[in-house]
Structure formats: structure tokens, C-alpha cells
Amino acid sequence: MDLDVNRLANVFAHNWWVVLLRGLVAIAFGIMVWVLPGVSLAALILLFGAYALVDGILGVWTAVSGRREHPDWWVLLLWGLLGIGAGIMTFFAPGLTALALLFYIAVWAVATGVLQIVAAVRLRKEIQGEWLLVLGGLISVLFGVLLMVHPLAGALAVLWLIAAYAIVFGVLTVILSFRVRSFGRRLGSR
Question: What angle do CA 115, 147, 149 make, to 5 degrees?
Fold first, then answer.
């Protein structure tokens, strides 16, 4: 096993619970949007901001905790910082138009999706289930592209799309967390 990739795999394995928490936050966000479709655009902006901020903080936590073990920890850090930046910008500019918010979310989804794919490619030979990280990244990219192509979609349709994305991404992340946890246990038994 390549030492650098092994270290990155260890970062995920030791922080499997953070990956799990990220998935559960995504699922909770998606269910909340689904159950409350009449939520105003202002509430959606704040809800998205809170989600992006929490997801980003958890991503930074994962990166920083593994910085000594892996030289490519900056990919995870950048992934988390994008979420924090998106969350903070959302809170400081709540008067964004629906169109601006859609592009804002789309760029965030594409950027984080690409970074997830990069992380999965680095781990592909070292862990089982890396395809879940790739699939989550591809779903993020596809979600972002769809928002860019159809920016004038109805508010309710966008809410449902955001909710479905968050739930699917969350479920994949939860599954990945248990696979990473299992990988960590196998590493410990060697």
C-alpha cells in the first residue's frame, strides 16, 4: 500500500464518525426541506447556509486531524473550506435572488463533487467502497450542472431537487462511513 494513500485512508478510518455525522446532517437537511416544502426562500437560504457551514466545519476537522499523516490533506481542507465559505457568504448576503442562490449552490456542488472524486481516486486501490465517494462526487457535480442548466425551475421543484440530492448524498456518505470504519478495524488487526 502506498504510504501517502495509506495515511489518507487512516485519516478517513480514524474519523469515520465524522463521515457518518456529515451523512446524517445531509439526510436531516434533505428531510427538513422535503417535509417543509412551503418554506420561504429566506428560510431556505439560512437552512442551506447552516448546512454548508456545518458540513464545511466537519470537513476541515477531518483534514486538520489528518494533516500530519498525509501530505494531500489540503484536498480535504479545501473541500471543507469551500463549505464554510459558502455558509458564511450565505449568512452575510441573505438577500440574494433565487437565481443567484441557485448558481451559488451549483458552483458549491460542482466544486465539492470534484474534490470528492479526487479523494476517491487517491484511495481507489487502498479501500473498499471508494466508488461510494466517487458516486457521491458525481451526484454533486450532476446536481450542480442541472441547477446551472435549468436556473428558472420552479421554487418547489428546486426544493425537492435539493432535498433529494441531500438525502441521496447523505445515505451514500453514511454507507461510506461504515465501510471506512470497517477498513480501519482491518488496519488495526494487521
Answer: 110
